[in-house]
Design a protein that fits this description.
Elements (H helix, E strand, L loop, with lengths): L1 E3 L10 E3 L7 H6 L7 E2 L1 H10 L5 H6 L6 E6 L5 E8 L5 E7 L3 E8 L14 E4 L1 H4 L1
Parallel strand pairs: 1-8, 3-7
Antiparallel strand pairs: 1-2, 4-5, 5-6, 6-7
Length: 133
Amino acid sequence: MVKMTGTTHKARYKFKIHKKDVDDIPYLLTKLPKKVTKFSKHCKRRMREKNFKVTHEDLNQLLTYRNLLDIQVAFDGKVTFVYRGNLGRHYDTTFVIDTKGGVISVWANNPKDNHKTLDESIYRKNIKIKDVL
């Protein structure tokens, strides 16, 4: 994976992508959804279970490069994006969205959670989105 820094919410988090997909970053960024279109059944169920309320409009506010945390490319070629940002609440909102704007999952994170247990040795560092476009 490649870790791209300085591009996300308050630069507290690291943008990452698999090393094999680095050359595809400009293409993958063209696949970013323009807006949230729907919540998956799984997502709706989990929000009910956790009493977590978020709207399409809330998540649309977070659909910016600044909040882009991760691009995931599955073995079957399906591309998903992970965003994390703060909507003025005491927690960060993190969600996974597909290229068509479908929210696969959404959850709350402690804003101070910087994933210190993450094994950074598997990432390349200091690559910025603007450098690969």
